[in-house]
Amino acid sequence: MTSTPEARAEPAPRLSQTSASGIDVPARVGPGAVDAERIGEPGEFPFTRGIFADGYRGRLWTIRQYSGFGTAEESNERYRFLLDQGQTGLSVALDLPTQCGYDPDAPMARPEIGKVGVSLSSLAEAETLFAGLDLAKISTSFTINGTAAIIYAMYLAVADKQGVPRAKLTGTIQNDILKEYVARGTWIFPVRPSMRLIADTILYSNEVTPRFNPISIAGAHVRDAGSTAVEEMAYTLANGLAYVDELARRGGDIEKFAKRLSFFFYVHMDFFDEVAKFRAGRRLWARLMRDRYGVTDPRAQHFRFGVVCGGSSLTAAQPYNNITRVAIETMAAVMGGAQSIFTCAFDEAFQIPTEFSAELAVRTQQIVAYEAGIARSVDPMGGSYVIEQHTDRMEAGIERVMREIDDYGGVVKAIEDGWLQMRLAERALERKQRVDSGETVIVGQNHFRRDDQTHEFGEVFRLDPGAAGRVLEKYRRVLDTRDGARAEASLARLGRAAADDRENLMPYLVDCCHAYATVGEMVATLRAYWGDFQEPVRL
Amino acid sequence: MNVPDDSDRAPAGASVSALRGKRILIAKPGLDGHDIGAKVIALTLRDAGAEVIYTGLRKSPADIARVAIDEGVDAVGLSILSGSHLELVGQVVDELRRLDAADIAVFVGGTIPAADHPALTALGVRGIYTSEQPLAAVVASLARELA
Question: Inter-chain contact A539–B39, Cβ cutoff 8 Å?
Fold first, then answer.
């Protein structure tokens, strides 16, 4: 990269009058913005101020860092390190072959083994990943979607092997396929059989692992791809309603399954957008549950969510600035009442974090939790003129976007047609153009740059180049040593169940896992009945 | 190789016809599902006058080389954010060479650490872009390389 040594004299940017989500923000807001009745009390409908009356005093948010790479052995070692640093829950990153349903020896899989997460091709790898970790005590979150049912089945099988009662398991599978079609891309099957598989996992989990979250309806990826905070919440609530409708169609009891629905969002840098987004989302969801579905149990009206701070709000330019960004975002998450927080490491914009940067990210949360004092009182910004007006405007914006999706014909149609995907791409282009023009300020990237800055700094994370080979070797060993007939029989039963819409596939998947059938084999079995999603490529 | 810098920064709209007459394939090799960068670039190159073809997700290097040849493109832009760029770019370049189409220029965008730039250049990659570069700089860089 060429560099010109002389400093550029740029005028300081002007403060904008609208938020990053396009919400008009006056310089001064008065007491008229606060309607105490509309806002309500913490722990009470409509939960604007939080789902718990005592906020974080009863229980702090879960510090949950997304982590995993290479082999199960290496990831197990990183998990033990993070738990030693005071992390309170695991969050498993899986590699792309595992997420897309390919075994490590598939040609498409080879270049991707262990790159963005750990490879988990069969129960043998899962046993290694959780070795020495007591699954009755640790809650584990899996960012897994296309193969969520399989990975959940594998987790149950590991618990069985460890002798941990399934009912004691806590954790989350993301299991939100709708947003995969829109933004994240790890879909496998067409939309409708995928919805069946998701309903299967939720209905099964409600009975077998009642403390487990069988879905985390996620706006995070849509947001990171370019949507505004308003659209992030609107798409997520719309997807949530699609799942509720599917579960109700399957005969699920909404008072029961709604208690285990959870959500997941990004926190980016516009502080009031973020706090208002969570307060508005919580209120909207509670109303939808009560008014549209007649839900009466408050716990089934609760909007519980985890967040990730960082992502595309982080920059490779001047990377230490990211430490400040993540601290501010963590504060917004706490003011918004998040149940779990993942703070990106400052180098996560361009590499897997090192132990040093990963520890710093955990420390950021601990500083916000225990030094800053903002977690002491529930919803500390509640009643602020600015935040209440912003929450109202955010809520109106979210409802407007939800109506647009409804008018189109609902999320499933909008996704099958590629309409939502196109809309997101256009929004991403607009966002990028605003950054390029300097209208959206990113310190160190498009303003306050130094031309002598270099991206080379600190410790560099190096993925062990031998990891892929070890994954393959272990995969082949599993195939050679398992009871092949048992694996085949379990897959055949899975196939027959897939052909019958009345069957819940979960028990069959758990059997397959116990028989050391591989993720690729299970996916191939289901694909034979359901086919592949045909991506609508629209530009 | 051509890595754009700030000197390429031009006001939006200044390069409306910079790529007129060029055919460009934007492709997603491998399993990475992050396609927004690819779509933003595809829309931008189209606005700059190019005819753009986008493959959609999860294409094998052989698929990509085949489409590039069938569509008679001048350039292939590969979008990779999963860290598997060295393997996948190498495979696409090999396929193009095997099919006697080494004249098709290859560009790469995504999460590409600076340390990997020399290896990609050695494979014949003509430009490497990240999300932090201005779109106008990417267009200007491609226009120069494809002139």
Answer: yes
ipTM for the predicted complex: 0.89
Please list every residue in chain A whose beta carbon sits closer than 8 Å to the beta carbon of residue B115: 460
Cβ atoms B95, B65 nearer than 8 A: yes
Read off the pTM.
Answer: 0.93
> CB-based contacts of A444: which residues, under 8 Å, 6+ apart?
A315, A317, A318, A321, A450, A453
Domain count, chain A: 1
Q: Are A66 and A353 in contact (CB under 8 A)?
A: no
The alpha-carbon gap from A173 to the nearest alpha carbon of chain B, in Å, equals 19
Judge: B58–A1 Cβ closer than 8 Å, yes or no: no
Cα A404 to chain centroid, rounded: 24
A333 lies in some domain: yes
Task: Give the closest residue to A263 by CA, choosing from A347, A344, A178.
Answer: A178
- Residues from chain B that touch A456, judged by Cβ atoms under 8 A, are 114
- Backbone torsion region of residue B124, taken as left when φ is above 0, otherwise alpha when ψ lies between -120 and 50, otherwise beta: left
Note down the domain range covering A289: 31-437
Closest Cα in chain A, distance from residue B100 (Å): 23
Q: What is the secondary structure of A282-348 as a DSSP string?
A: HHHHHHIIIIIH----HHHH--EEEEEE-GGGS-SSSTTHHHHHHHHHHHHHHHHT-SEEEEPPTTT
Dihedral of the alpha carbons of A435, A437, A438, A439, in degrees to the nearest 10 = -80
Compare CB distances from A100 to B11, B31, B135 and report the shortest one's residue.
Answer: B31
Six-digit token string for A480: 């050679």
- What's the distance, CA A260 to chain centroid? 15
CATH of the domain at A109: 3.20.20.240
Q: Are A447 and A10 in contact (CB under 8 A)?
A: yes
Residues A166-225 have pLDDT tens digits of 999 999 999 999 999 999 999 999 999 999 999 999 999 999 999 999 999 999 999 999
Are the C-beta atoms of B134 and A434 separated by less than 8 Å?
no
- Domains contained in chain B, CATH given: 19-145 (3.40.50.280)
Identify which of B9, B84, B131 has the shortest CB distance to residue A111: B84
Instruction: Supply the DSSP symbol for A130.
Output: T
Residue with tokens 């892929």: A468
- pLDDT tens digits for range A214-241: 999 999 999 999 999 999 999 999 999 9
Q: Which residues of B touch A437 (CB under 8 A)?
A: 11-12
Distance (Å) from the alpha carbon of B32 to chain A's nearest alpha carbon: 7
Does B33 sit within 8 Å of A184, measured CB to CB? yes
Interface mutation target, options A350, A456, A459, chain B, most CBs of B under 10 Å: A350
Q: Cα distance from B102 to chain A (closest Cα, Å)?
A: 22
Chain A residue with the nearest C-alpha to that of B87: A111
Provide the phi-psi class of A482: left if phi over 0, else alpha when psi is between -120 and 50, else beta. beta
Structure tokens at A388: 């209440």
Contacts of A275 (CB under 8 A, 6+ apart): A332, A335, A336, A381, A387, A390, A391
Supply angle C-alpha A392, A393, A395, rounded to 5: 65
